[in-house]
Design brief:
SIR2/SIRT2 'Small Domain'; binds nicotinamide-adenine-dinucleotide; 3-stranded antiparallel beta sheet; single chain; 2 domains; Rossmann fold
Length: 284
């Protein structure tokens, strides 16, 4: 079956998205050449290292600035998913992304497994168990950038002087159990799962599509390279998410897309890929 046929036959699609859906918005992913981790050492950005090292926190603010420097906007892939939801065919998006671009595109049901980069929060003076232990202070990320610009390399919580951190989930930090439950519940209602722009290597998030697969629900993987879950997918679609999704959603909903065109990526190739040679492994 093709992506168009699977989408046309679905009334309860759930999208599972990763960093690859936002590369066409100018945000680098983690693992592709030129991605974030070619310029920053992932071992430095664990929750424990963030808590123990002022120098790591200082560099983390520099990385955050780089993340937002280009003022990223939703691309045709985000917009296509929002259109599917608006037409009642998509139940929602479960995303590993922290960029907020699904909401900016108009998606309403978005489960952000790894938090939000547009906010900062107090995590307490010395949380030790991979779980924030702050006083409840939160603010837009611009608050931290303003403090850094004013000369505070490591801005502290104005309420309790605890450590301030981006409201995202770092490696070694526990996911909010309520969010995992909500994501599992949504995937439990899906009649089609679209996994888009994820290397499917960061657990537990990457295990979520299996909830649907184990019920016999088709899984379509749209990614620019093979993933460890390709073997269990009904279909793998090789190509840029923006082109693949906007073309498929146009075909299913009818009419031309009202979304901007992405940069010219050439014709997306669609084919069933051979088995991958990689195995699933936790993220760095
Ligand atoms: P990943 O970097 O491990 O994998 C991204 C995948 O997307 C790669 O396999 C790549 O080949 C593919 N890809 C890149 N551009 C694509 C495109 N235009 N179309 C289709 N596929 C494309 O990302 P991940 O699986 O999401 O896991 C890494 C972690 O990175 C997540 O926890 C996420 O929180 C975090 N992250 C988020 C952002 C963001 O919010 N935009 C950016 C970087 C990292």
């Amino acid at each position: 079956m093709t992506l168009n046929e699977l989408l046309a036959g679905s009334s309860a699609t759930v999208a599972f998205t990763g960093a690859g859906i936002s590369t066409e918005s100018g945000i680098p992913d983690f693992r592709s050449p030129g991605g974030v981790w070619t310029r920053y050492d992932p071992r430095d950005f664990t929750f424990a290292r963030y808590v123990e090292s002022e120098e790591v926190r200082t560099r983390a603010w520099a990385m955050r600035r780089e993340f937002w420097a280009s003022d990223p906007q939703p691309n045709p892939a985000h917009l296509a998913l929002a259109r599917l939801e608006a037409r009642g065919r998509l139940l929602g998006v479960v995303t590993q992304n922290i960029d907020g671009l699904h909401q900016a595109a108009g998606s309403r049901t978005v489960i952000e497994l790894h938090g939000r980069s547009r906010e900062v929060m107090c995590i307490g003076a010395s949380p030790r168990t991979g779980t924030p232990d702050g006083c409840g202070f939160s603010a837009p990320t611009s608050w931290a950038f303003e403090r850094v610009d004013a000369g505070e390399a490591d801005p502290r919580c104005p309420t309790c002087a605890g450590i301030v951190k981006s409201a995202t989930v770092s490696f070694g930090q526990n996911l909010h159990p309520g969010l995992l439950d909500r994501a599992a519940d949504l995937l439990g209602q899906a009649d089609l799962v679209l996994a888009i722009g994820s290397s499917m290597q960061v657990y537990p998030a990457a295990g979520l599509p299996m909830i649907a697969v184990e019920r016999g629900v088709p899984l379509v993987i749209c990614n620019a390279e093979p993933t460890p879950l390709d073997d269990v997918a009904t279909l793998t679609v090789d190509g840029k998410a923006g082109e693949v999704l906007s073309a498929a959603v146009d075909a299913v909903l009818g009419g031309a897309t009202a979304t901007p065109r992405p940069r010219s990526w050439g014709d997306p190739r669609r084919r069933r890929r051979p088995s991958p040679h990689r195995r699933a492994s936790p993220g760095p």
